[in-house]
Amino acid sequence: MLRSIILLVLTCLFQLAFSQTQITVRESILRSKANNPFLKTLKFDLDVAQSDVTTAGLRLNPDFQTQLFTIPQSKYWADNTGYLNSANTQSWFQLGMPFRLKPIRKYATDVASKNLSATQQNILEFERTLVLDVCNIWLDAWSFHVNMEILSQAKLNIDTLIKINENRLKNEVITVSELIRTQVLSEQYALQLRTIEQDFSSQLRKLQLITGSTDSIAIDYNDEFIFSQLLPPVDSLVTLALTKRNDLQTAKANKNAAQSNVTLQQAFVYPNLYGSAFINPQNSIPYVGLTAGIQIPIFDRNQGGIERSKALLNQTGSNVLALEANIKTEVKNAYAAYLIRKGNLQRFQNIMQQSETVLNTIKYKYLKGNTTIIDFLEAQRTALETKRMYFDEVLSYRKSNLLLLYTSGLINDL
After folding, report:
1. How confident is the model at residue 393 (pLDDT cuts 50, 70, 90)?
2. Domain boundaries in the chain?
3. Which of 279, 320, 360, 395 is paired with 215 by a 20 to 30 Å CA distance?
4. DSSP line for 166-197
């Protein structure tokens, strides 16, 4: 009977493990770029911008006009005729076409094309931030999992000690208070585990949402591909950032579009021409002719449009300079933080090994009756805190690495 129950439990665990998809950081990134619902929504901006390019390239439509005049009183009609007889009517058929002195269509297409380029860069910038969010959520889920493992192992050790102390209490080797102390610590670990398990589940649901996954997922806890890259010196990273950062490329594209818009607005100063040809049959006598017209630019010379376009050009140019200065600062700060975290991680490795050695030594002494439970619990607490601090430092190091990839623009290459 017991064997059957164990087999059933193992079967359920096996099915649960394979019902979830274990994904690495790279797989999370690829999924988010393909399936993230917010990115999908943003990509419709490309269709909108492309439609503006199409609209800007359209030519002006010709226009057609017709008129009909008739003599309303019969006393003026020609003999044996009526209202609509050609002898009593005049008709007007005119086909006209507006013309522009400046190539407005060319300038408008140029502006729309550069706005399309800015839209493309803006989507890439959204992807850059999306990758950062995906990696941070993945890392937080990894961190919660590691903390669950640490606490589970600590609780297992304490539970084992509880069983030992129960026997020792029967043999009157220890007091009741010592057993209670270990039991209380076990309960504390159990409460902490429940909280972390909830946080871990929340992170997995966030990862599922941001990657656009329809099924439940699990992460590959051993994946470290993104956190083991060799990074160039800080000056090289600054240069890369000024080349690769999509927010800067978006700002430059907006500046280029603003520059083209100045040319477009200045072209609107010139008036439109109008020419047409007409046929005008009058009382059975056909007339043909041509007409021409031009707007007289006395009041409206697009002064407001030109001023606005120049102000936008100054604004976009200032934004480019501000972003360049900000990028340099961000990269340098991220690089400095990365170096500090890297150094701290190396120091914590030695501290964690030492705390484990101390814990094992004091545990052995306690079981032999050579030290008090207070010393053991203190060593247990110190070892647990050190281990958790170590993995917190691993998390901080990986996030500092990630932030450096983000600020330098290299994150788009992952």
Report:
1. confident
2. 21-413
3. 395
4. HHHHHTTSS-HHHHHHHHHHHHHHHHHHHHHH
For domain 21-413, the CATH architecture is Up-down Bundle (1.20)
DSSP secondary structure string for all residues of 82-121: -TT-GGGEEEEEEEEEEEESS-HHHHHHHHHHHHHHHHHH
Strand partners, 217: 21
pLDDT band of 181, cuts 50, 70, 90: confident
- Rounded to two decimals, what is the model's pTM? 0.82
CA pseudo-torsion sign 257, 259, 264, 268: positive
Q: Which long-range contacts (CB under 8 A, 24 or more apart) does 65-68 make?
A: 65/92, 65/93, 65/94, 65/96, 66/91, 66/92, 66/93, 66/94, 67/91, 67/92, 68/92
For residue 295, the one-letter residue type is Q
Give the separation between CA 345 and CA 209, rounded to whole angstroms. 32
Burial 338-347 (b: 16+ CB within 10 A, else e): beebeebbee
